[in-house]
Amino acid sequence: MAMLKWENKELGEAAGVSEKTAYSVKMGLSRPQPRVLAAIRKALEDNGVEFVEQDGVRRSSESVQVLQGPDDFRTFYDIVFEHVKQHGGTVCVSGVDERLFAKYQGPQSEAHVERMNKLMMEREDIRVMILVREGDTNFTATSYASYRWQSRESFSPTAFYVFGAYLALISFQSENAPKVILIRSPVFAEAYRRQFGQEWERAKIPPEKKQS
After folding, report:
1. Which of 24, 89, 128, 190 has the CA that lies 20 to 30 A from 165?
2. Tens-digit pLDDT profile for residues 45-58
3. Structure pTM?
4. φ and ψ of 145, to 5 deg
């Protein structure tokens, strides 16, 4: 893709298809299955390409939104849910203390688990990965998410979410907590996604339940 300066191999890897398939789709040499087109479109959208009317594309605009207080925190969860509902993909969450998340979500906490469980049964392209502090066994979302223990030395109480082209930084220590800084930026999202991947590989699988 010229806009991203991707070769066919890079596009194929991002979309989970072969290099040959990526080339054929890009050059219009074949009529791919809808799932292949959806995978390629998602890979492009996750990396900052926005599809517009009349089959056009453009770079997604970057934006920053500040959400503050319990009501906005619940709105943030609605944003995450609607994104994965529409696009699927992997959600990476680090620095989690589920007790704080549940406290500020209130009744929405259980409702969010229920709607995520239902969504996971409807879609097979969603994965939620959560890093918690080593020794923490409060796995609120274990029915739809995989947990791993991050070492106490590496763990930070400032949480972050990465989903699609979004990065959310979450603080429970600010005034009128929690405070969520929601950044739409493929560059920042990818940087944190890579950092998360490295920490995930180093993290321990909790002994209570072996998870993939």
Report:
1. 24
2. 766 676 665 555 55
3. 0.72
4. -125, 155
